[in-house]
């Protein structure tokens, strides 16, 4: 897997998980923790063969830093830049009207 593709996988999956977690936090469903855990597990399994599916730079560094086959720069790009960009993007993605309408379909928009 190429470094840019690995960073993209980490970034997109981190963004998706953060958006889902924020939506669950706002909606407060009865089994929110279990739903969040299921979403996280599904994303990790989906990304496992591509980037390892860590979605957490500190965890990835503690487990993968210094492993053979990757340089320090490659590690930083995939696990730090990819995941951090995904987390930052999730803040903006969650505020998009499309996402807000999915999370709160009955909310009346006030200007």
UniProtKB/TrEMBL annotation:
Subcellular location: Membrane
Major location category of this protein: membrane
Assigned keywords, A-Z: Membrane, Transmembrane, Transmembrane helix
Membrane topology note: Multi-pass membrane protein
Transmembrane segments: none
Single GO molecular function: channel activity
Cellular component aspect of the GO annotation: cytoplasm; membrane
Family annotation (InterPro entries): AQP11/12_channel, Aquaporin-like
Family matches, as PANTHER family: AQUAPORIN
Protein name listed in UniProt: Aquaporin
Annotated source species: Timema monikensis
